[in-house]
Amino acid sequence: MPYMIGRDLMHRWERNPIITRQDIPFPCNTVFNGTPVKVDGQYYMILRVEGLEGRSFFALADSGDGLHFQVDPHPCMMPAASGPFESWESNGIEDPRLTVLEGKTYIMYTAVGPRGHVIALAETKDLRHYERIATVSEPGNKDGVLFPERIGGLYARLDRPIGGDVGSVWVSYSPDLVNWGRSEFVFGPRARYWDCFRVGASAPPILTDAGWLEVYHGVKMTSAGPIYRIGTIMLDRDDPSQVIGRCVEPSLSPREDYERVGDVGNVVFACGAIVEDDGQMKVYYGAADTSICVATGDLDEIIASCLDP
Ligand code: BMA
Question: In terms of pTM, does the model score above 0.90?
Answer without folding.
Answer: yes
